[in-house]
């Protein structure tokens, strides 16, 4: 696969490879299955990141028909969800899986053909029977159970949360997600690589640029296409403008959960101004319909961006200063939802979440793409791992994003913004981006008809939803909403 170094492994070699990787400080990124040929066994692919500035490694494994694959989740816990996803959607069985329960398909759902194995989605028949879902056994005097959701008030996406608690103390927390699985990865199949970008930027509404960028770079890797320099620099500008409005929304929403109403209003006003800036430069508040494999669809209107952005920066600096000096706000954040560094590493935390827990990782710096290798990038990192640290990381990233945009405007090269980009039949490519919520990967497989045969998406919320419960156990009910807001999670990014 273009974009990664390949190794072929037998199924019984996976555990040993994971031990070598983690022993050297490397980390798994994702795993998935696909069917290269109809009526043939699935091929498993594992993406590993050995270290910063080193190429990604892709392990290919074709299990023997009918034999389960040894689970590697006991060595790399973050693989647990990926293995369960492969079981639900591809029918791959894993031996000694620590969490042998459905993930994407809820209990009681069965299929005639694995959803991603069928040539025609109409061949897949999902059947449902009433079946209670398994919960851990929690015993003790006065232990109560609260099931909240899946329908929630306001604009929150569907999810069901189960709390075992005594008084205000949460003993155990169990999130039940994947109520609105849209089959986005399946929807790519049969599309042309050029048309696929329109679907990619709609996987997660608040991550349109990041998804489109990772997807386009995967297609470009498959086609061995070199994107013009000007388009690369403009892609960085758009990615940072997306990071900007996401983080401003985050700060406003976090204030909402701590009942700091003025802080909420100011944060969301700044978010609105950032979105208006997006509309001025591109015609889209969410920066959609701009990227395409090979570059950009058109030029941006950058004439007044530098001056307007400086005004926004000054207002934000004053706003952030007031936030970190408001004791009633800080009292609710400091020590809330602490995530230990080792747990963050083992379970796959990413983005501001991992950087707030002492893991200094950022794809823009460690595996540069677009024009990031030519831009000075400050990556903030803290080690307290609480909600306050997560807020401070995002405040620092807002300032860094504005500085990056101003740098792009200063050094933006002239030239074309697009070249032809058509992958050959059978080509494969890996693309990635550091989205506002963390690492995002796209793996693209082009079929013999030159159309998309398989697209795999690894989104940051899929990782961060997995790690989030570790910060809820042994916490308290009054802090739950604050803790969840401090993670900045989305369901659309998790349940694709």
Please write out the topology.
Layout: E1 5-8, H1 14-23, E2 27-34, E3 43-49, E4 57-61, E5 69-70, H2 79-90, E6 94-95, E7 109-111, E8 126-128, E9 144-148, E10 160-166, E11 169-176, H3 184-187, H4 193-200, H5 208-223, H6 229-257, H7 261-282, E12 291-292, E13 295-296, H8 305-323, H9 327-333, H10 341-347, H11 352-355, H12 363-366, H13 387-411, E14 428-435, E15 438-446, E16 452-458, H14 460-467, H15 477-487, H16 491-494
Parallel strand pairs: 1-4, 5-6
Antiparallel strand pairs: 2-3, 3-4, 7-8, 9-10, 10-11, 12-13, 14-15, 15-16
Helix pairs in contact: 4-5, 5-6, 6-7, 6-13, 6-15, 7-8, 8-13, 13-15
Structure explained in plain terms:
With 496 residues, the chain is of the alpha+beta class. It folds into two domains: 5-128, Beta Polymerase, domain 2; 185-460, Cytochrome-c3 Hydrogenase, chain B (Orthogonal Bundle). Helices cover 38% and strands 17% of the residues. Strands 1-4-3-2 form a four-stranded mixed sheet. α4 packs antiparallel against α5 (208-223), α5 (208-223) packs antiparallel against α6 and α13 (387-411) runs parallel beside α15 (477-487). The longest helix has 29 residues, at 229-257. The protein is globular, with a radius of gyration of 22 Å.
What is the beta-strand fraction? 15-25%
Q: Biggest sheet: strands side by side, in what order?
A: 1-4-3-2
Q: Largest sheet at a glance?
A: 4 strands, mixed
Q: Helix tally?
A: 16
- The low-confidence parts are none
Amino- and carboxy-terminal Cα gap: 23 Å
**C-alpha geometry:** globular
What's the domain count? Answer: 2
- What's the count of strands? 16
Q: pLDDT average, as an integer?
A: 93
Q: What is the fold named in CATH at topology level of the largest domain?
A: Cytochrome-c3 Hydrogenase, chain B
Identify the CATH architecture of the largest domain.
Orthogonal Bundle
Radius of gyration: 22 Å
Look at the helices and sheets and give the structural class: alpha+beta
């Amino acid at each position: 696969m273009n974009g990664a170094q390949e190794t072929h492994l037998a199924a019984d070699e996976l555990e040993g490879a994971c031990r070598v990787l983690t022993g050297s400080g490397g980390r798994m990124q994702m795993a998935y299955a696909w069917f290269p040929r109809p009526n043939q066994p699935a091929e498993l692919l594992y993406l590993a990141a050995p270290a910063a500035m080193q190429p990604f490694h892709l392990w290919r494994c074709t299990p023997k028909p009918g034999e389960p694959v040894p689970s590697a989740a006991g060595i790399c816990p973050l693989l647990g969800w990926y293995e369960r996803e492969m079981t639900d959607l591809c029918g791959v069985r894993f031996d000694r899986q620590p969490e042998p329960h459905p993930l994407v398909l809820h209990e009681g759902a069965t299929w005639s053909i694995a959803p991603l194995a069928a040539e025609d989605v109409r061949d897949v028949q999902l059947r449902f029977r009433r079946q209670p879902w398994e919960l851990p056994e929690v015993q003790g005097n006065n232990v109560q159970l609260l099931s909240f959701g899946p329908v929630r008030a306001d604009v929150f996406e569907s999810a069901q949360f189960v709390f075992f608690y005594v008084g205000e103390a949460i003993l155990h927390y169990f999130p039940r997600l994947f109520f609105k699985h849209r089959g986005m990865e399946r929807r790519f199949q049969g599309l042309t690589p050029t048309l696929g970008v329109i679907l990619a930027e709609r996987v997660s509404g608040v991550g349109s640029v990041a998804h489109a960028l990772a997807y386009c770079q995967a297609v470009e890797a498959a086609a061995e296409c070199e994107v013009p320099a000007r388009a690369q620099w403009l892609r960085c500008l758009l990615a940072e403008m997306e990071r900007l409005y996401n983080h401003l929304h985050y700060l406003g929403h976090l204030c909402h959960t701590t009942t700091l109403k003025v802080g909420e209003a100011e944060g969301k006003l700044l978010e609105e101004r950032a979105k208006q800036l997006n509309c001025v430069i591109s015609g889209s508040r969410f920066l959609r319909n701009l990227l395409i494999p090979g570059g950009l669809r058109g030029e941006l209107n950058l004439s007044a961006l530098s001056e307007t952005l400086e005004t926004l920066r000054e207002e934000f600096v004053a706003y952030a200063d007031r936030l970190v000096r408001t004791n009633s706000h800080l009292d609710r954040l400091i020590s809330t939802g602490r995530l230990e560094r080792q747990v963050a590493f083992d379970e796959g935390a990413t983005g501001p979440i991992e950087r707030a827990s002492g893991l200094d990782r950022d794809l823009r710096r460690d595996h540069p793409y677009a024009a990031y290798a030519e831009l000075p990038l400050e990556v903030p990192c803290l080690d307290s791992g609480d909600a306050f640290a997560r807020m401070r990381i995002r405040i620092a990233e807002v300032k860094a994003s504005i500085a990056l945009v101003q740098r792009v405007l200063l050094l933006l090269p002239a030239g074309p913004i697009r070249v032809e980009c058509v992958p050959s039949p059978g080509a494969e490519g890996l693309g990635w981006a550091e989205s506002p919520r963390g690492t995002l990967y796209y793996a693209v497989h082009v079929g013999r008809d030159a159309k998309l045969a398989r697209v795999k998406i690894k989104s940051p919320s899929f990782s961060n939803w997995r790690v989030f419960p570790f910060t809820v156990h042994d916490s308290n009910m009054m802090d739950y909403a604050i803790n969840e807001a401090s993670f900045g999670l989305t369901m659309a990014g998790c349940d694709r």
